[in-house]
C-alpha cells in the first residue's frame, strides 16, 4: 500500500511539474524550455527506468543553439538535482548529466562545470550529496547509496573535463589514443603531467569503490549507469596509459619530490584492479604490466635520488667540519662573529 501511495504521489508531482513547465514554456524562453525538457527526462514514474532516448536527445539539442540555451539546460538540471529528495529522480538527473558530459556538444559541456561544480565563494554544489538519504524502503536505501557514489564520480569527471582537454569526449569504447592527445601530453611540464595523472587515478579509484549490486540487481537505472561508467573507465585507462608511457621517458628528469609523488600515485592505481561490477576485460594485462614496470623504475629513481641527497648532506657536513677546524682557537688575533662583537684572547 505504501509503495502504491508513493507511486501516486510521484505521478502527481510529475503532472504538476510538467503542467507548470509547459505553461511557462509558452513564452518560448530558453529557461522555460530547458525546465520542461529536464522534468520530462527525470520523472518519478516509472522509477526503475532510465530516461528515454528521445528525452536525452531533447537535452542534447540545447548544445546546438546559443550559449544561453546551453547554460539554461545545465542550470535546469542542477536545480532539479538540488531540489529533489527522491533517489530515482536524483539518479535520473545524474544519468542525464552523464549523457550530456559524454555526448554533448562543446558549448553544452562547457556550461556544465560552472553550474554543477563547487562554487569558490559558497563551496556548494548540487553534486555534493553525501547526506542524501531516503529510508522509505530497502530498495530506496540501496539506490540512495548509488546516488551518493554516482554524484561523487560525476564531480570527478567534470573536474577532469576542465583539466584534461581530451577527457571525457564522446564515448569511444576501447579506442586507441589519437596523435593529438599524445602530442599535447608530450608538451606538458612534469608537474602538470603528474597533476593530470592524479586526476585520472582519482577517477579510477572512485570507480573501484562502487556500491554492492545485490540490493539493486535488475535495476535498469543502475544497469545504464554501469554501462556509461565502464566506457569512461576504459577511456580513463587509455589516458593513463599515454601518461605512463610519457613518464617512462622522463624518469631521469624528475625531481625527488615529483618521483615520490609519482610512486604514491602508481601505488594507488595498483590498488584499483578489482571491480566487483566489471564482467569484461579492461584495456589488457599490458596496461597493468606497464604501470607496475613504471612503479618499479620510479621506486629505483626515488632510492637513487634519496641516496644522492644523503651523500650531498654528508659532504656538506664534512666540508663544514673541516672549515671549523681552520679557525685559530686560542690565538691572540681578534675573531669577528656575526653579532659584530669582537672577542680577544
UniProtKB/TrEMBL annotation:
<feature type="region of interest" description="Disordered">
    <location>
        <begin position="310"/>
        <end position="332"/>
    </location>
</feature>
<dbReference type="GO" id="GO:0072583">
    <property type="term" value="P:clathrin-dependent endocytosis"/>
</dbReference>
<feature type="domain" description="ENTH">
    <location>
        <begin position="26"/>
        <end position="168"/>
    </location>
</feature>
<dbReference type="GO" id="GO:0032050">
    <property type="term" value="F:clathrin heavy chain binding"/>
</dbReference>
<dbReference type="GO" id="GO:0048268">
    <property type="term" value="P:clathrin coat assembly"/>
</dbReference>
<dbReference type="GO" id="GO:0005794">
    <property type="term" value="C:Golgi apparatus"/>
</dbReference>
<dbReference type="GO" id="GO:0005545">
    <property type="term" value="F:1-phosphatidylinositol binding"/>
</dbReference>
<dbReference type="GO" id="GO:0006900">
    <property type="term" value="P:vesicle budding from membrane"/>
</dbReference>
<dbReference type="GO" id="GO:0030136">
    <property type="term" value="C:clathrin-coated vesicle"/>
</dbReference>
<dbReference type="InterPro" id="IPR011417">
    <property type="entry name" value="ANTH_dom"/>
</dbReference>
<dbReference type="InterPro" id="IPR008942">
    <property type="entry name" value="ENTH_VHS"/>
</dbReference>
<dbReference type="Pfam" id="PF07651">
    <property type="entry name" value="ANTH"/>
</dbReference>
<keyword id="KW-0968">Cytoplasmic vesicle</keyword>
<dbReference type="GO" id="GO:0005905">
    <property type="term" value="C:clathrin-coated pit"/>
</dbReference>
<dbReference type="InterPro" id="IPR045192">
    <property type="entry name" value="AP180-like"/>
</dbReference>
<protein>
    <submittedName>
        <fullName>Clathrin assembly protein</fullName>
    </submittedName>
</protein>
<dbReference type="GO" id="GO:0000149">
    <property type="term" value="F:SNARE binding"/>
</dbReference>
<dbReference type="InterPro" id="IPR013809">
    <property type="entry name" value="ENTH"/>
</dbReference>
<dbReference type="GO" id="GO:0005546">
    <property type="term" value="F:phosphatidylinositol-4,5-bisphosphate binding"/>
</dbReference>
<keyword id="KW-0333">Golgi apparatus</keyword>
Amino acid at each position: 500500500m505504501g509503495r502504491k501511495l508513493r507511486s501516486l504521489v510521484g505521478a502527481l508531482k510529475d503532472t504538476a511539474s510538467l503542467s507548470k513547465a509547459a505553461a511557462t514554456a509558452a513564452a518560448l524562453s530558453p529557461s522555460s524550455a530547458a525546465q520542461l525538457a529536464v522534468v520530462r527526462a527525470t520523472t518519478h514514474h516509472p522509477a526503475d527506468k532510465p530516461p528515454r532516448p528521445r528525452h536525452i536527445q531533447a537535452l542534447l539539442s540545447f548544445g546546438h543553439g546559443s550559449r544561453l540555451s546551453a547554460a539554461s539546460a545545465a542550470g535546469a538540471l542542477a536545480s532539479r538535482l538540488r531540489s529533489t529528495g527522491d533517489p530515482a529522480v536524483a539518479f535520473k538527473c545524474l544519468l542525464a548529466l552523464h549523457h550530456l558530459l559524454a555526448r554533448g556538444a562543446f558549448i553544452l559541456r562547457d556550461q556544465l562545470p560552472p553550474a554543477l561544480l563547487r562554487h569558490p565563494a559558497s563551496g556548494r554544489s548540487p553534486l555534493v550529496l553525501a547526506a542524501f538519504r531516503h529510508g522509505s524502503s530497502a530498495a530506496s536505501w540501496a539506490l540512495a547509496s548509488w546516488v551518493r557514489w554516482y554524484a561523487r564520480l560525476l564531480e570527478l569527471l567534470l573536474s577532469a573535463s576542465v583539466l584534461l582537454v581530451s577527457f571525457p569526449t564522446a564515448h569511444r569504447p576501447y579506442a586507441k589514443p589519437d596523435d593529438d592527445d599524445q602530442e599535447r601530453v608530450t608538451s606538458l611540464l612534469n608537474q602538470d603531467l603528474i597533476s593530470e595523472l592524479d586526476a585520472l587515478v582519482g577517477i579510477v579509484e572512485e570507480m573501484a569503490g562502487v556500491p554492492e549490486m545485490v540490493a539493486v540487481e535488475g535495476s535498469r537505472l543502475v544497469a545504464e549507469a554501469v554501462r556509461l561508467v565502464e566506457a569512461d573507465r576504459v577511456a580513463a585507462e587509455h589516458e593513463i596509459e599515454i601518461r605512463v608511457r610519457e613518464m617512462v621517458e622522463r624518469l631521469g628528469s624528475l625531481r625527488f619530490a615529483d618521483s615520490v609523488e609519482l610512486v604514491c600515485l602508481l601505488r594507488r592505481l595498483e590498488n584499483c584492479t578489482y571491480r566487483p561490477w566489471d564482467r569484461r576485460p579492461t584495456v589488457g594485462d599490458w596496461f597493468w604490466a606497464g604501470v607496475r614496470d613504471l612503479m618499479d623504475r620510479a621506486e629505483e629513481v626515488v632510492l637513487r635520488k634519496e641516496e644522492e641527497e644523503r651523500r650531498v648532506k654528508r659532504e656538506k657536513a664534512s666540508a663544514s667540519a673541516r672549515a671549523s677546524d681552520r679557525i685559530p682557537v686560542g690565538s691572540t688575533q681578534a675573531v669577528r662573529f656575526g653579532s659584530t662583537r669582537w672577542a680577544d684572547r
